[in-house]
Amino acid sequence: xxxxxxxxxxxxxxxxxxxxxxxxxxxxxxxxxxxxxxxxxxxxxxxxxxxxxxxxxxxxxxxxxxxxxxxxxxxxxxxxxxxxxxxxxxxxxxxxxxxxxxxxxxxxxxxxxxxxxxxxxxxxxxxxxxxxxxxxxxxxxxxxxxxxxxxxxxxxxxxxxxxxxxx
Length: 167
What we know:
The protein contains four helices and nine strands. By secondary structure, the protein is an alpha+beta fold.
């Protein structure tokens, strides 16, 4: 069974703005390529695509799009990320299943990973990106994504798209 999660993917111009703000990534961190940048709503682990898709369709039915923007960098142990702001984002994530996780939902976009025992590797980047703010965009769809491990990192495939139209 594939590993599944639901996510919002930023529009191309927002991805380009983040890439411009980051500039040339330096060694020491394992950078996520821009094509994998996303905001996870909920992580499901190994699951059946059809069953999870049907479940998610019911949970997202009638929901409207949400306004989202990316902001300053921060870290979790071993992860450099951008903050994601949006007043309706957490309720959307909970509808997608984030409320089933043991830890509170923290909307973020992962930029890079680093050894947990070397938190200083990310300090330069949190300083560099402290003032970053992307334009706001209306996230009008949620994507159910499969993640498969490959030698160069995970490969994501969109399994299903759910329109957020409020109907």
